[in-house]
Every structure is written in structure tokens, then in C-alpha cells.
Amino acid sequence: MTDILHWENDICGVPVWLLHEYLHELGGTIIANSHLSGQGWEVLLEPMEDYKVGSLSVGQVHLHLKADADIFNEIQVAIEKKLLRAGG
């Protein structure tokens, strides 16, 4: 039996539709509107209240990954690489 590991991250400035695309590129398929699954991993995306500074408003999403221990680091690093944004 494989252990299941969890990782959570609040993502600011990346829309849910783009996160769906990133996770699809990593082999995920949509199970439900905010729930995606790949081989040995699952992600739940939960929209959060927009981050606001003055009149600027930026969307936020809470990402919850659970994955088999043997692929956890691989999928976590792959997601983090997808989230790298040029310019900040």
C-alpha cells in the first residue's frame, strides 16, 4: 500500500481555466468542475476571494494536491514549474 501525501498552495493571478490547462498537460482529466485526477494524483481547485490592493483585484485559487508518495515530488515540482511566471 502506498502512502498518500498532501500539498496545499494559494495561487494568486492564475485563472482557474489556466490551472485546468496546466493540470491537463500533466496528464490530468476533469472529474468534476474543480476536481482533476491523473495517474496517482488528484487536485481540488477552490476559488478564493479576490486579492485586492486599492482598485486592483486579482483572482486567487486554493490548490490541494494529494498524490501517491512515489510520484508526489515529481507532480508537485511539475505543478510549481507550470506556475512560474515571467516578471513576477
Question: What would you note in describing this structure?
Answer:
By secondary structure, the chain is of the alpha+beta class. It has a domain at 24-47 and 72-88. Helices cover 28% and strands 49% of the residues. It is built from 2 helices and 5 strands; from the N terminus they run E-H-E-E-E-E-H. The mean pLDDT is 92.
Helix content: 25-40%
Order of helices and strands: EHEEEEH
Shape: elongated
Unreliably modeled segments: none
Specify the number of helices. 2
Rg over alpha carbons: 14 Å
Mean pLDDT: 92
Largest sheet: 5 strands, antiparallel
> How many β-strand runs?
5
Strand order of the largest sheet: 1-5-4-3-2
Alpha-beta classification? alpha+beta
The first-to-last residue Cα distance is 40 Å
Portion in beta strands = over 45%
Oligomer: single chain
Give a concise summary:
The chain has 88 residues and is α+β, with helices and mostly antiparallel strands.
Q: Secondary-structure blueprint of this entry?
A:
Elements: E1 4-12, H1 16-25, E2 29-32, E3 35-38, E4 41-53, E5 56-68, H2 69-83
Antiparallel strand pairs: 1-5, 2-3, 3-4, 4-5
Keywords:
single chain; 88 residues; alpha+beta; five-stranded antiparallel sheet; 2 helices; 5 strands; 49% strand
